[in-house]
Amino acid sequence: MSSKFCNHFRSPPKIPEVIIPEDLVVNIALSTRHEINRAFANLRQIALGRDIKKFLIVIAGLWLLSILGSCCNFLTLFYIVFVVLHTVPVIYEKYEDQIDTYGEKGWIEVKKQYAVFDAKVLSKVPRGPLKDKKN
Q1: Where are the domains of the chain?
Q2: 130, 48 in Cβ contact below 8 A?
Q3: Does pTM top 0.70 for this prediction?
Q4: How many angstroms separate the CA atoms of 121 and 31, rounded?
Q5: pLDDT at position 46, please?
Q6: DSSP summary character for residue 15
Q7: In b/e form, how buried is each residue of 19-58, taking b as 16+ CB within 10 angstroms?
Q8: Quick one: pLDDT at residue 58?
Q9: What average pLDDT does range 95-107 have in this prediction?
Q10: Which residue of 45, 81, 102, 126 has the smallest Cβ count within 10 Å?
């Protein structure tokens, strides 16, 4: 019986050959490069202050991130993000209609508040001409 067992394991295991097509890798690299360039273009627009709405959103996001970061350490923050990313889609699927209704109402209110902020504050900020330098 032991000789049959040994004979069974003497032959090398058959491992299938894995081949990744070149065109797939090239397409992934091209789309990744396109997305990175688009992100850099957005960051440039935000840094130049041309789109004040995006600029304010980035400031608010970084401010919220700093508040969360001061309340807990990185591991706790990572755990919270992990749990939220796994529960929010399930909750959204279950209550999609109600969430969309409240989201639309909230978005209308945000637009109203932004219009007031724009009229009272942003319209009074002096802006000089923006010129791009050609190298």
Answers
A1: 22-71, 73-124
A2: yes
A3: no
A4: 40
A5: 82
A6: -
A7: eeeeeeeeeeeeeeeeeeeeeeeeeeebeeeeeeeeeeee
A8: 85
A9: 94
A10: 126
Mean pLDDT of 77-92: 91
Angle between helices 96-120 and 74-94 (to 10 degrees): 120
- Tokens standing for residue 1: 């019986």
- pLDDT per position as a tens digit, 3-50: 566 555 666 778 888 888 999 999 999 999 999 999 999 888 888 877
Distance CA 25, CA 132 (A): 36
Residue written as tokens 């991130």? 65
SS3 state of residue 41: helix
Taking the C-alpha atoms of residue 118 and residue 100, their distance in angstroms, rounded to an integer, is 26
- 89-122 as b/e, with b when 16 or more CB fall inside 10 Å? eeeeeeeeeeeeeeeeeeeeeeeeeeeeeeeeee
Residues listed for the chain: 135
